[in-house]
Write a structure and sequence with these properties.
Strand content of chain A: over 45%
Number of strands of chain B: 11
Distance between the termini of chain B: 37 Å
Order of helices and strands of chain B: EEEEEEEEEEE
Mean pLDDT of chain B: 92
Structural class of chain A: mainly beta
Oligomer: heterodimer
Low-confidence stretches of chain A: none
Largest sheet of chain A: 7 strands, mixed
Radius of gyration of chain B: 13 Å
Shape of chain A: globular
Low-confidence stretches of chain B: none
Number of helices of chain A: 0
Distance between the termini of chain A: 37 Å
Strand content of chain B: over 45%
Helix content of chain A: under 10%
Mean pLDDT of chain A: 94
Number of helices of chain B: 0
Chain lengths: 113, 110
């Protein structure tokens, strides 16, 4: 079974530039999560989707971050404009339903210069 | 509110046992445990639900004390492959989000 796919794996950009991350969850998984992970810290939820509906985006900085999950499958997370403090690993995870095991992707390591 | 994990880091020799603790100031519905190796994605270990039994997987098991709002992860006869950072994640209710702790770094040496 294919796991959660994320791209790109690494991204280096100048501050104030836009950046986008893509996630393809495991087939059949209705719930999709975007997390931010700073070095030496646990993942922090940015947004959770149930199918195509964003059911928890309270931690998403909406002035610069946006996300979408078209047709309830793939998802894109965008930052515009990026700031130095956005440097982190962005993890995508999916699960069959609301409860239970989350399957994480390899993450995208973002460096903002 | 983020759960507290202890210890922050531990070094073991192969074959030794370890306990990692996770505690919350709020009543909990569930506790999740994940392991993350350096540069890799977190990998699920187990979930403990309120009212549930102690879980186990090979030589890794966990308990959940609802009254004390604590969970402990037990690693027995540790192997080199156990090295990594262990995160607990807690949910206050069945419809809440999982909040992860800061992690416990575990290193197993020969």
């Amino acid at each position: 079974e294919a796991g959660v796919v994320q791209s790109p794996r690494y991204k280096i950009i100048e501050k104030k530039q836009p950046v986008a991350f893509w996630c393809n969850p495991i087939s059949g998984h209705n719930t999709l999560y975007w997390y931010l992970q700073n070095l030496g810290q646990g993942p922090e939820l940015l947004i959770r989707y149930e199918n195509e509906e964003a059911v928890d985006d309270s931690q998403l900085p909406k002035d610069r971050f946006s996300a979408e999950r078209l047709k309830g499958v793939d998802s894109t997370l965008k930052i515009q404009p990026a700031e130095l403090g956005d440097s982190a690993v962005y993890l995508c995870a999916s699960s069959p339903g609301r409860l239970g095991e989350q399957f994480f992707g390899p993450g995208t390591r973002l460096t903002v210069l | 509110q983020q759960p507290v994990q202890s210890p922050q880091a531990v070094i073991l020799r192969e074959g030794e046992d370890a306990v990692i603790n996770c505690s919350s100031s709020k009543a909990l519905y569930s506790v999740h445990w994940y392991r993350q190796k350096h540069g890799e994605a977190p990998v699920f270990l187990m979930i403990l639900l309120k009212g549930g039994e102690q879980k186990g997987h090979d030589k890794i098991s966990a308990s959940f004390n609802e009254k004390k709002q604590q969970s402990s992860l037990y690693l027995t006869a540790s192997q080199l492959s156990y090295s990594g950072t262990y995160f607990c994640g807690t949910e206050k209710t069945s419809y809440d989000k999982v909040i992860f702790g800061p992690g416990t770094s575990l290193s197993v040496i020969p």
